[in-house]
Amino acid sequence: MDDAVVGEIGRGLLALVGVGRTDAGPAARALARKLHELRIFPTDDGASSAADLGLPVLVVSQFTLYGDTRKGRRPSWTEAAPGEVAEPLVEEVVAELRRRGATVATGVFGARMAVSSVNDGPMTLLLEV
Fold it and tell me: Cis omega (within 30 of 0) on the bond before 122?
């Protein structure tokens, strides 16, 4: 952000977190648990989670995940929660991950950021709770 790195991890999870109008605290905590425990990292025994391997999570707020492009040529973000609702829920995802023992880095809520990612596989998943 503004030529400064505000959040960075090595091997781990990049979580682009979008908050919808109807989301609440329980969904934020459930998402954190799912992120932390999802067994997607290949190991000799099959697959392990970020929790199993002690891997960090980079959480970046991303309201554009709620972009609806079904009509016309301009996305609509009417299903995205307004900032004053979304920010505390993104913070709750971060807090719950930390309560679970995860190392968490973050972006800056509402800021324009250049986010770089190297996918292993590649693998990109959409998690909904």
Answer: yes
